[in-house]
């Protein structure tokens, strides 16, 4: 889109909005009639809604790496572990990777990221910031270099304790694991402005208001020049917020309250763009990094994870549709027709080539969506999509010309208890050993006739059964030839831990008065 100048005679502004762990069934424009999302619905009615928008991974870190680079996460090593578990680790998006933010920055854009990053900070020593947003094309960063998690709120601990136990494949020295988790609230629950830690531990209660103010402020400061804003919300990942202005207002408890708060925040961003006269010169995009976390619930708050509509599975469940099908909305008044619905397969990885028309870049897995969005072509360029569960190729989606979508699953997670729709005993599904069932032949589904993936196809029910297996097997061989053996280093390294003060005695609070 940067080749197309808006009504101001300059390159268009770009506002990207990503919600964390949002289920595709949580919004009115995607079929929810009990949670109020008028502002998200308005974006859809004034723009284009994608119904087959697919995340490149069902978990935060690999999905976001693919989103930023237009490439499957394995190419940069980010699929080797499902998520980064430590802020004080050397893993992250490698400095050698090129993001769409860096490309736009080179084109003269002012670029900003407000909110969640979760793609690493340091490599060799505290302060080298090799993985930091500033090194990946964002000239301004305010937000969470890590992620929001339960340990950031007293009384809601356990989430990363559980994840660490599940990902720990061999016994490690007790101190190496105990110390970083014992002090998680202080060391990992932080806010940075550019490369400075300005709050440690962060005050979670006021985080949404501060992120919104920063995003609005970035737009207002850059009204006279082309800008890219990536507004990466801390919602709807747990712990859920408990803002008095929204508490008890929805029909779905605290989770519904949080969705309605998200909608209000998106309305404020849209209002800021429109009130400054930037609507016709600004591409707005709305999505989620992956599907909702079905297993997130407790007796006190109730359901804390999202609803993935009629689709099977959710967060961390490999290629099951509920974990990778996400909302996708584009709005650009005067350029994109309002109210259109696209049923073609698209990917979060498509943002990179769409924003930059980077046909000359090698090894891109995404495709430029502008011809599809503008109605110049009717068909997506995605014939095959590959879905991972951790490091393992879990499923392949085939979309032959003029035909249906057929996901092919090589293995599936074992739900617990048996017959449930998720891994409720462990709270998150795993991708190996006794946690999965391998299928030979693979399971094949017809998403048009069976969107819940409940009835596997057979040679008797699908005339092209053998062809589907043959075509996907060939596609897998080609895909595996491009795989990388890069690995993310996940162990906690205290010398890499960001800190305001003298490590390990970290602690500071943001001076919100002087910053507003």
TrEMBL record:
One of its GO terms (molecular function) is metal ion binding. The chain crosses the membrane at residues 158-179. Coiled coil: none annotated. Belongs to the sulfatase family. It comes from the Eukaryota. The keyword Membrane applies. GO terms for cellular component: endoplasmic reticulum. Pfam families: Sulfatase, Sulfatase_C. Residues 12-359 form the Sulfatase N-terminal domain. The lineage of its organism: Eukaryota, Metazoa, Chordata, Craniata, Vertebrata. This is Sulfatase N-terminal domain-containing protein. SUPFAM superfamilies: Alkaline phosphatase-like (SSF53649). It comes from Mola mola.
